[in-house]
Amino acid sequence: MADRVVPSAVDAEGHVFASLRLVLLGVTALVQPTLGVGPLLVHDHPAALAAFAVPALVTALCAVWVLRRKPLPPPLVVVGAVAVLAASAVATDVLPPDAHFGPTHWSFGLVGWHLLLLLPDRVAALLAAQAAHVAISVTQWLLAGTPDRAEVGGAGVVVLSVVSFQLGVLVISRVLVRGARLAAEVAAERERAATRAALAEQWEQDLRAGFAGQLGTTLPLLADLADGVLDPRADETRLRCALAATQLRRLFAENDDVPDPLVHEVTACVDVAERRGVVVSLAVSGAPVPVPTDVRREFAGPLAVALVAARVRARVSLLRGDGEVRVAVVADAGVDVGTATGRVEVECGTYGRHTRMEARWRTS
């Protein structure tokens, strides 16, 4: 399965905020000269000019990160928010008393867009900054003179329209963020489901390959029996059939979900021998240790051969301790299962009518 990159919920939110800031940068850059240049020409005050330059500088600094779709540094956010609020207060302070919340009060409508540009991903801070902006502007208006009822109504309409429109942008941004988060979660869940399906398919293929490998010795035996090449009454044929049955029984046990797979597979081999009438005693000592599947298969090979060769009795011992796992078999059979040195070391010796086999694997 080809690798696919699924964005997380955090990545999706970052993408939304990066796109939103890009739009707000354009709005702020367009709104500032539209709202501010005309009033500055009418009220040519040095403080107003300085107040107009501060938000423009903040916008220019934000553009350095916004155009690269990078999050704004926290120091820039804090300093920028304080700077534009202070600039708004200065610009409002030099207005004539009758110009508050009017066409020449450019800072009131502009600063909210700067705050949106700086704080779209910090809702609490944005609301607090907007509230401070409105409170400062209203306080300065009241200190400039006593407004009549008509002026109060007009100011209320301006405040409500400007603030509600800008907060509407905030609400839309939260809806977009929530949608992006849900989409990312759905995509991640689909990816997890696809991964689980791929793992299940791979496990099934591995299982089939394992069965095919084990059946590689069984199918020729069955073919020879069916074709009459082998005599079912012959001792060698019966031994081959018993060995194939033991291997298949252990293979079935290999895929069982049990606490101690090695003991489970050894018991499966013992069970096949007992079904043939062999009296088998099994002794297990030591605490369970994790044994890889391929190592368990190496243990099972010589164990199966020794048990299949047993005539009447066999004794199986599974010992775990001192950094190694050992499986030993003593059977009343004069067959040599051979020796091997690999991950599992096998030693075998024949003593009269008895065979002793020991397989050893070091855990470290």
UniProtKB/TrEMBL annotation:
Q: Does the keyword Membrane apply?
A: yes
Q: State the superkingdom.
A: Bacteria
Which stretches are transmembrane?
22-42, 48-67, 76-95, 101-119, 126-143, 155-177
Provide the coiled-coil residue spans: none
Enumerate the UniProt keywords alphabetically: Membrane, Transmembrane, Transmembrane helix
Q: What is this protein called?
A: Signal transduction histidine kinase
Taxon lineage: Bacteria, Bacillati, Actinomycetota, Actinomycetes, Pseudonocardiales
